[in-house]
Amino acid sequence: MPNIRKSLLQLVFSGTSMKRWNDKMRPVELMEVDKQAHKMIMAWMLYMLNSSEMETRERITLGDHIVRGGMYDYLYRLVITDIKPPVFYQIKANPAHYRQLTRWVLEQLKPRLQSLGDSFWKGICDYYEDGSSRDDLAVRILEAAHLLASQWEFHLIKDLNPKDEEMDDIEANFIQGILGFQDLVGVRELMQGRKSPLGRFAQLCGQLRFQKRWSQTPRIPETAVLGHMFIVACYGYFFSLTVGACKARRVNNFFSGLFHDIPELLTRDIISPVKSSVKRIGDLIKEYELKELESKIFSTLEQGGYFELSKRLKYFLGVDVGSEFTSTISRNGDTREVTWEQLQTSYNSDEWDPKDGFMLKICDDLAAFIEAYTATRNGISNDQLQQAQWNIRKKYQQISLTETTHVGGLLADFD
Predict the structure, then answer these.
(1) The pLDDT value given to residue 132
(2) Is residue 326 part of a domain?
(3) Which among 34, 214, 250, 282 could disulfide-bond with 275, CB atoms 3.0 to 4.6 Å apart, if both were Cys?
């Protein structure tokens, strides 16, 4: 049975310390995990728009290929962290050199990924060694999203580096690269930025890289809301593998994790003690979030004709059931709340469009735990970080998802 280890969780989290554009003047630190989150958000938009006429089974499979491809690329990137993109592209252009590099990368990843089971491990090996697991449309969507997310960052640093001789070439390469994907529905709109509803939504999401979590608590590394969402998305997919989730459920769990903190675009990162201190305060925050989501995101997308994107976002965010952390199924437009046990036994098939809530909350708490744990290991010790770790350990001490997936045991590995 697939299982999750401490080393895998920490590997995914390590992207919070991996700096981008490190040889350029930057207005803020730009981190790899934030860029990956932005990339996958835009990949989701392109996926939805370019699969609208597919049959359900084909569409779900494409979604799974995009999710896996995005995670494969991220994991690969974490290992080759010190290789600058121009050098990497030269290596990639030489098949023999690229095979050697890939073989070494996979050797580094193997101890951390093999516990996820043969399917995931074989998938990443095939993806890089012979390309047999690559879906052409999925790869093109991911490449387009990568360029768009990287170009978004480039626009942040461009004016700060007027004397840098590389900037003109970098800008030209972005434009040329993105133009090669204009046949994909949505690429032109994303290139327009705030001038289009799609581009405006991508712009809003990108701004979450500036919003720091635990903003009143010193930590090393600092983490942004944007990167946190990607980490929760990855954890959600990994846990989906361990519980034997169907393909639709795996894909839904990844994207639900990727969007679960989108309301904080509008309300900032309000810490849990404030939300839970008085029930009415939590209710008021929720009401305000829904009102702002409707006016700033859902209605904007719908006015632009992107009704399906708006509807899907509402499903991921649990708008109809009151919380993104509520397990649900959906059939013929009817969304219904279910328990974790029902999801596992009665509705774990693609036809029910299942989405985890309870398990997603576990992933959210695990990501918060690792933030606090890592800061403590890096020499930052304060009451908030210690209390957060203690609370999460206590909350999940006796919680198991399957016979081989014990959340309390996983947390105990961090002792």
Answers:
(1) 59
(2) yes
(3) 282
Q: Is 318 left (phi over 0), alpha (psi -120 to 50) or beta?
A: left
In 346-415, which residue ranges form alpha helices assigned H by DSSP?
358-377, 383-396, 407-412
At 334 the three-state DSSP class reads: strand
Asked whether 157 and 22 are in contact (CB, 8 A), the reply is no
Query: Residue 129: inside a domain, yes or no?
Result: yes
Is the Cα torsion angle 191, 192, 196, 197 positive or negative in sign? positive
Structural domain harbouring 144: 6-360
Q: Residue 285's pLDDT is what?
A: 77
> In which element (H, E) is residue 83 found?
none
Q: How buried is residue 224: exposed, middle or buried, by Cβ count under 10 Å (0-12/13-18/19+)?
A: buried
Taking Cα atoms as reference points, which of 125, 128, 95 lies closest to residue 110?
125
Which distant-in-sequence residues (6+ apart) come within 8 Å of 349 by Cβ?
A: 246, 248
Q: Which of 265, 258, 232, 223 is nearest to 32 (CA)?
A: 223
Instruction: Count CA atoms within 13 Å of residue 278 on its CB side.
Output: 4
The full DSSP string for 264-287 is: HHHH----HHHHHHSHHHHHHHHH
Bond before 86 cis per omega within 30 degrees: no
Each residue's pLDDT tens digit, 238-291: 999 999 999 999 999 999 999 999 988 776 555 555 445 555 676 777 788 888
> Does a structural domain hold residue 84?
yes
Mean pLDDT of 114-136: 86
Strands (E), 286-355: 328-331, 334-337
* CA 405 – CA 1 distance, rounded (Å): 9
- If you count them, how many residues does the chain have? 415
State the total domains in the chain.
Answer: 1
Backbone angles phi, psi at 359, to 5 degrees: -70, -35
- pLDDT tens per residue, range 189-228: 999 999 999 999 999 999 999 999 988 888 999 999 999 9
Region 384-402: what's the mean pLDDT?
94
Q: What is the mean pLDDT of residues 402-410?
A: 92
What are the tens digits of pLDDT across the range 338-364? 999 999 999 999 999 999 999 999 999
Average pLDDT over residues 106-132: 90
